[in-house]
């Protein structure tokens, strides 16, 4: 598929049915049933403070009440019955690229649809916020119709091919979600993360301190390894700037490899510092495999 080319139009309702039959069913038993524990753990409300009993967890001791009463007291919690999840999806022009199975924007859309189906089928709520040209928002709700609403939002805010565009502002999108959340939530940030981490790392860290945040990076093989095709004119989809490269020149290929490596290390450092897990999805792959491996890795870290 050529960069920026458009596949035959698939309506959101058709896409939702395709995801249900071809993707979500293959994830049954892996992401369903225990997905709360897998992703965000229980969301807890304080129910009461009572005296300590043998077997109570030390971390739940309420030291203020203990000091006032002179006897050990612990916080007793009740689990909230409903989880709220958010999708923060990049719709900048750089997402309009792909050389294999799909464009990056379509891979991001498919992931968003799968996440919305998983969450709503469990009886929980999900909302979506897009950032980039034509940003939009769908408030959190439940039900299959909400999964369709998420896909409709992404269809309306698909990245335009014309340039230039304003710079991608992931930090502003994360701050918007942070302001809306009152209880612990699950947040998926779906982007190619081509924007430098310096602009959004602090906001991500604050969000991840209170919520379970998962970074979903979508990429294309031609971005990770420069194709050896001789002379090539490249165009930045967000600034409109053009550059001619000899992709067969060893110096050019080495410089590109260094840039890709530096960008990857900077992203991983920022995510590690914020304690945010990274899920990598590539346009050359069926997304089910990476999702299953990600789930297995998370499950393996559970106590």
Automatic annotation (TrEMBL):
InterPro entries hit by this protein: DUF58 (IPR002881), vWFA_dom_sf (IPR036465)
Pfam families in UniProt: DUF58
Q: Where is the DUF58 domain?
A: 48-260
Q: What is this protein called?
A: DUF58 domain-containing protein
This chain's source organism reads: Deinococcus phoenicis
